[in-house]
Each structure stands twice: as C-alpha cells, then as structure tokens.
Amino acid sequence: MDLRKLSVRSPVPANATMSDAGADAGLSNLIPGTVLEAFVPGYGLISRFILHAFGFDIGIVVSLGLVVFATATAIRYLKQWGKSIFFNYLTSDVHIEQEDDLFDNVLEWISQQQMAQTARTIKAATRPVEGSTSEGGNDQKHQQSSGNGGIFHYGQWEAQIPPRYEPHFGRVRFWHQGRLFFFTRYQKDNQRRSLHFSYGKAADEEGITLTCVGFSTKPIRRLLELIKMKSFEKQKSMTKIRRPSGKESRYGGAWYRISTRPSRPLETVALDKAQKERIVADVNEYLHPASPRWYATRGIPYRRGYLFHGPPGTGKTSLSFALAGIFGLDIHVISLLDSTLTESDLNRLFNSLPRRCIVLLEDIDTAGLLRDEKSDEANADADKKSKDSTKKDDDAISAKDLANALKSAQRKAKEDDAKKGISLSGLLNAIDGVASHEGRVLVMTTNHPEKLDDALIRPGRVDMQVEFKLASHAQIREIFVRMYSREEDNDAEKYGAATATATLGTANGHGNANSSELKQRHGKHLPNGSIDIDIATSAFQDGFPPREELEQMAAEFASQIPEEQLSPADVQGFLLTRKKEPRRAVAEVAAWRDAKLEAKEKGTKVVRFS
Ligand SMILES: Nc1ncnc2c1ncn2[C@@H]1O[C@H](COP(=O)(O)OP(=O)(O)OP(=O)(O)O)[C@@H](O)[C@H]1O
C-alpha cells in the first residue's frame, strides 16, 4: 500500500488544529488522534512535524502497529487464560519432591523418552559413573582406553560416556500408551531457596509435577508404578547407601544418598555357614509382612537390633552390606565419630528413616559414650603429672601451677567430649525414640564390646550378638578360592590387560614384561627361587587353575597362616597385590606371614614386606 498517496489524497484542512491535522487525516481515522496521543505520548507533535516536513501522515502506520500489538496481546492473553483454565480445571497433578527417590526414577525414565531427545531446550547432565550400568559394561570403550602398554586411562574412559539429556525447567508434553501427559520441572519457591543459600548451599532444590488430562490422578499413579518397577528392575542388584546430610543442610531431609553400589553377595563374606544362616533367618523372619502384627499383639516394639563385634577387618561392615543386598534394603550409615553430629541430629535421623531399612551404627565404642571414662583418664593424667612434678622439685612448682595444670587438663577433656556430642542417653533415646518404632534393622558394630554400657546392649536394643573372629583356616581357604575362581576370571577377561595394571608397582603389573624380567623382579621377593612365579604368571595367562588344583593351593596357602592371628582383611590385602598369581601368593605367604606377625608382636604398623 502506498501510504504517501493516501496521505496526499487526504490533505489537512486549513483550519484544523495541529493535533487534529495528523490524527484525522486519511486512514489515520482508524484510531482517532486523541486515542493515539494517549497511547504514544508526544504523538501529536511528532506526527505534525513529519506531516509538515515530509507531507506524510504516520497515523496509519501507528494505528496498524497498535492494532497488531493489541491483537497479539489479546491472543496471548486468551492463550494463557485458556491454558490456566485447562490446567486448573481439566487436569490432575502429582508432585514429586527432589528428596524422594521417585524424583531420580522419573528423571531417568523421562530422559529415555523420545521427547527428551527431540525437545529444543534440554539439560545435559554428567552420567554418574559409580554404580551406573555403564560402568564395566562397555568392553569396547575399555579397550580403547587401554592404550600405552595396557594402562587404563580413567579420564579417557569416562569422557566416552555420553551425558544424560533430560528436560530442563518448564513444561513439556509427552504421550504414553495413547495418553497425553505433561512433565513440569521447577525450582522450589524463593523462601526455601533463600534458606538454602543462607546455609551456603546452591539453590538447586527442585520439584517435578506430572500432569494428565482428566479428573483423576489414576493414569499418573499407574505411570509412576511402571517407572518404579522399571527402576527396581534396573537397580535390584544394587544397594543404596545413605549417610547423614552435611551439617549445613541437616535442617530438612536428613539423609542423602551417597552411592549406589552392586549388592555384595553373602557368599563373598567368609563366615561360619551356620552363623550366617542364623542371622539371615532371623532378619528374614523379622521382615516378614506378618511380623508387625505378631509384635503388636504381644505388645513388643517392632524393632530388631544386632551387635557385630570383633577385631578390625573381620567382616562386620561387609556382612551388613550383604544383608542389605539380600533383603533389598537401603543401608543408612551413621558414624558416631562424626564430630558435627549432635543428639538432635541423631534424633532427626532416626525420625526420618524409611519404614524398612538397615541402620548401620559404626564403631559405637569410640563415640562420646566413653565420656566419663575419658575425663577420668584426663583427671588421672593431670594428677600423675602433678605428682611427678611435685617429686621433682617441690619448691619450684607452686600450688597455683598445679591447679592450672589440672584445670587445663579438665578443659581439654571437656573440649574432647564436646566435639563428640552424643551421650549414652542421647543414643538410647534415638534408638528407643517414638519414631524408630517400626521396622528398622539396627546393626551396631564395635571392636571393643567390653567397653559398651550394659544399657546399650540389653535385650530389646540388641537382640543378637555376633562375634567376628580373626581368620580361621576355613575362611582363609574361602577367600583364596574366591580370589582366583572363574567368576573373577570372567572379569579379568573382560578388562584384559588393563586390569593387570591396577597393581602397578608390583611386578605383575607390567603386562609386557618377558618371563626372564619377571623372574628377576619376583626373585627378589621369593625365598625359594623365582621359577614358581613364572609358572604362576603363565597359569593366569593360559586360564585360571582348575578348581581341584585351586582348592589344593588354597589349603596349602591356609596351612601356612596360623589360625586367628590375622584378619580376613589382611589376607585379602595380601592376595589383592597378587591377584593374578595364585602360585606366587602360595610361594610368598610364609615370608609375608612372618613379617606381619613380627610387626604385630612389636606393635608397629610397618610391615617389612612388599
Ligand atoms: N569375613 C570376611 N570375608 C570376606 N572378606 C572380608 C571378611 N572380613 C573382612 N573382609 C574384607 O576386608 C575388608 C574390610 O572388611 P570390613 O570393613 O567388613 O571389616 P570390619 O570388621 O567392618 O572392620 P572395622 O571394624 O575396621 O570396621 C573388606 O574389603 C572385606 O571384603
């Protein structure tokens, strides 16, 4: 359209005022000049100027612009109004909090849907390596990352794991089984976020809303059940481990998941078979769905407590994890050594336990329960010091100095206690508290059962005590056989030469070394020559020893270690540095045993053996 012509065909009347002139000319009548003046301040002045200078009436352009703008706004408004009517009155929602496991399950599921791949704005997240199925599952990538003479480069391997793409904040729609759903991801309200900021944590608290069309949440519930089942299928062989949240965020969700790791099979814990069966049967009976009623009708609190006691490295923690795996329970680990843990934290942690789980309270003897004993020790120390110094020079040390020494020793003891924070009564309250009445399995571990207060281990708090001993011959044989059995072989084949390098620093780490080099290097350690080592290496490379031979070797190996002198962890540690060389392990065990026992006798931690 030729606007100039239009304005020429509609000259301004001579007697028109300046504002009327522009406003009323030609098609500018579409919107009267006075109205335009109201919308665009100074419009009259500008239009008159342009009209006089160029003979062109801008009224039509401005009018059209305003009409387009008004129409677009109206459409947008109507759209929003329609949307809000739709979402407020015609749909149903289910909200999921970030703290809940479902949050991750839904996010994982949604990130595998078509819409998450094709959406124009998505969020990329680094896939967690720990416990993920990608770990260990990609042989080709493993091999690619094993350049440089078989050295496995973790960074390179990790770089090849593609990120996870998931919907970003906002709403996206998706279809599932012929139904329309909406997925909304949002950040939590400002109040909560600012609280997080004030605790120094990033404002990453999020939530998810799933929406479906209709007046019932049933389709969403069905979808969530399906997602839960799928996640379970994926994670059924995994154990979730939770620890208390950091001090700064302990005000809310008290637990956070630190990792998910493959469940530990019970067979991998070398323990007396009958003992293991007894524990498993006991936990199984306790967890049975009929048990809560049984307990309730007899007025017995529905809880079960176990005390695992024994020297370090004898399998207390390992058995707890194995139990969690067998019964499909999450494991909640609390260390009473955590100096930031207060009694109210402990209460809150017990309050927020799920209905069924294992709570692992580690090293209960080392926590603040020793408060009185400690301060007694400190007092005794101060007394002794004062007596000694009195003996040395009665005149030199004044009574005031002695009082000061005593005071400072007491202050130190108090500080030590304050750091620990949990008293016996605090712990008992948490264990017996109203909130911990249902369904949890409490496992307490200690290296010093004799130091525990009777109240802590009375029946009702501890229902079964299990003693873990230093390694017996049977245990040593079991650990040896498992270390070199075919199941391990499978892994070894999978990882190829790369795994050999995991023991870098030991001779067998050098995958490319020839046999004479190996003989030389190993010969240093061997009391009886190096030829065995060479055979051992080739035995591994040609395949693991047959079962019968392995059992014989295990018996020979075990016979060289005195019973109940070394822990299973010690034995495992020794074998791990020879994890492809059973014969070398047998050949070197005597020297290692002597070094270990000597160190133990001397009370030194340094073992002169490599
Ligand atoms: N009985 C066992 N059978 C198999 N492996 C064991 C056994 N005992 C210990 N180990 C191994 O030793 C390591 C340490 O074991 P674990 O942490 O279970 O010992 P712990 O008794 O809990 O020690 P601590 O008292 O120091 O906490 C683990 O790698 C585990 O595999």
From TrEMBL:
Do the record's keywords include Endoplasmic reticulum?
Answer: no
Gene3D superfamilies per the UniProt record, alphabetical: P-loop containing nucleotide triphosphate hydrolases
> Which ranges carry the BCS1 N-terminal domain?
62-269
Query: Where is the region Disordered?
Result: 124-147, 375-394, 504-523
Where the protein is mainly located, per its record?
Answer: mitochondrion
Q: Which keywords belong to this entry? A: ATP-binding, Hydrolase, Membrane, Mitochondrion, Mitochondrion inner membrane, Nucleotide-binding, Transmembrane, Transmembrane helix
The record's SMART domains line, in alphabetical order, gives: AAA, BCS1_N
- For the AAA+ ATPase domain, which residue ranges apply? 302-472
**Cellular location(s):** Mitochondrion inner membrane
Record membrane topology: Single-pass membrane protein
InterPro entries, sorted: AAA+_ATPase, AAA_lid_BCS1, ATPase_AAA_core, ATPase_AAA_CS, BCS1_N, Mitochondrial_chaperone_BCS1, P-loop_NTPase
Q: Give the catalysed reaction(s), semicolon-separated.
A: ATP + H2O = ADP + phosphate + H(+)
Q: Does the keyword DNA repair apply?
A: no
PROSITE patterns assigned: AAA
What residues form the membrane-spanning segments?
Answer: 49-75
Instruction: Give me the stretches of Low complexity compositional bias.
Output: 504-514
Family note: Belongs to the AAA ATPase family. BCS1 subfamily.
Query: What is the recorded name of this protein?
Result: Mitochondrial chaperone BCS1
